[in-house]
């Protein structure tokens, strides 16, 4: 679960930006954890390519690999020969694996033991959204208000993951790889990548991502990319509903991210679990030819007025803490701040 502080650190590092195609808000918060190990990337347009790139990296065992990935993954993707050839899937796949290669070659990371999840969203100039994921951070898209998973969480107990772990000589105990790591794919974590006779894709823990592809449609409103500090507390639909309710109230995207983290933050750390993790969230608005003001109105007008809301004595609605989620990001889809603005 990780060690916790006596009081949470609720100071937030937030940013916002965008262009005529997308607007984003992003925020991260240390919360109850002893250290902040997350990193994230926000690039509305990468070097005049017409493409956008957003990613979240949830570190464990330290922040070094997460920070390295946040600083370098996007450059590796866009500089790859596969990206230049228009093979965006292979550009993402090879770049996730390439982070491990780069770390192993860098003498300053020779004894590095940390690792991180990685979930990255690449929006091409042709409005095709590719989501590449390794680990249990997650991306969703809100389509006409429906929160749809664009990634699948990688847990050691998943049948496919267990089979690979055992084939590589590892085992799953207490839902963890070798009784230790609670996710089955990650960047770094080299202690779980020691089988010299196996390729990187077949190691007990692999950086190889699963990749989904989604061509934007008119009904797509926004994407959410976040670490499990959010998804352990709220379901995909709860997150979509929360964000849409704030859009209806005309709250800016950066502040919505902050509000969402506050909503997920546990009242106490007695168990060190749900609501006690580092939290990072990015909201990406798909403007689709609208101004930001027009986008807010278009989304907000579709949000129903709240019903059955418990009112406080002053008549204001009382927000309830979210219930823990049992979602794994396995819903089927229908068809540290780094940025070009940048800082890690």
UniProtKB/TrEMBL annotation:
Q: Which CDD domains match?
A: PP2Cc
UniProt keywords (A-Z) are: Hydrolase, Manganese, Metal-binding, Protein phosphatase
Coiled-coil ranges (or none): none
Q: Which EC class heads this enzyme's classification? A: hydrolase
Record InterPro entries: PP2C, PP2C_BS, PPM-type-like_dom_sf, PPM-type_phosphatase-like_dom
| Basic and acidic residues biased stretches | 311-334
Ranges of Polar residues compositional bias?
1-12
Gene Ontology molecular function, alphabetical: metal ion binding; protein serine/threonine phosphatase activity
The cofactors required by this protein are: Mg(2+); Mn(2+)
Q: Region entry Disordered: which residue ranges? A: 1-20, 305-344
- Give the PPM-type phosphatase domain ranges: 23-286
Matching entries from SMART domains are given as: PP2C_SIG (SM00331), PP2Cc (SM00332)
The Enzyme Commission number assigned here is 3.1.3.16
Q: Provide the catalytic activity annotation.
A: O-phospho-L-threonyl-[protein] + H2O = L-threonyl-[protein] + phosphate
Q: Which family does it belong to?
A: Belongs to the PP2C family.
Q: What is this protein called?
A: protein-serine/threonine phosphatase
């Amino acid at each position: 679960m990780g060690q916790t502080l006596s009081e949470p650190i609720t100071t937030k590092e937030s940013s916002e930006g965008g262009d005529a195609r997308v607007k984003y808000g992003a925020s991260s918060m240390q919360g109850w954890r002893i250290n902040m190990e997350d990193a994230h990337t926000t690039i509305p347009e990468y070097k005049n390519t017409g493409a956008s790139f957003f990613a979240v990296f949830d570190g464990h065992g330290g922040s070094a690999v997460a920070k390295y990935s946040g600083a370098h993954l996007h450059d590796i993707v866009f500089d790859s020969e596969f990206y230049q050839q228009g093979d965006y899937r292979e550009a993402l796949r090879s770049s996730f694996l390439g982070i491990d290669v780069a770390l192993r070659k860098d003498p300053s990371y020779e004894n590095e033991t940390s690792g991180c999840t990685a979930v990255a969203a690449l929006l091409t100039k042709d409005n095709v959204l590719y989501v590449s994921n390794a680990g249990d951070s997650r991306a969703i898209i809100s389509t006409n208000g429906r929160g749809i998973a664009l990634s699948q969480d990688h847990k050691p107990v998943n049948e496919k993951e267990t089979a690979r772990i055992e084939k590589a000589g590892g085992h799953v105990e207490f839902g963890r790889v070798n009784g230790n790591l609670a996710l089955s794919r990650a960047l770094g974590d080299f202690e779980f990548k020691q089988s010299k006779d196996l390729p990187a894709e077949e190691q007990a823990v692999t950086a190889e991502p699963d990749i989904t592809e989604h061509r934007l449609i008119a009904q797509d409103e926004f994407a959410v990319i976040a670490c499990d500090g959010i998804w352990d507390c709220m379901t995909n639909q709860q997150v979509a509903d929360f964000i849409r309710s704030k859009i209806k109230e005309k709250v800016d995207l950066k502040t919505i991210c902050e509000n969402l983290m506050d909503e997920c933050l546990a009242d106490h750390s007695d168990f060190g679990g749900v609501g006690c993790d580092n939290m990072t969230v990015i909201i990406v608005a798909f403007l689709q030819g609208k101004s930001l003001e027009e986008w807010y109105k278009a989304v907000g007008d579709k949000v129903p007025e709240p019903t059955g809301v418990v009112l406080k004595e002053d008549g204001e609605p009382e927000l309830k803490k979210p219930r823990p989620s049992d979602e794994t990001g396995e819903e089927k889809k229908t068809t540290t701040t780094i940025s070009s603005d940048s800082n890690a």
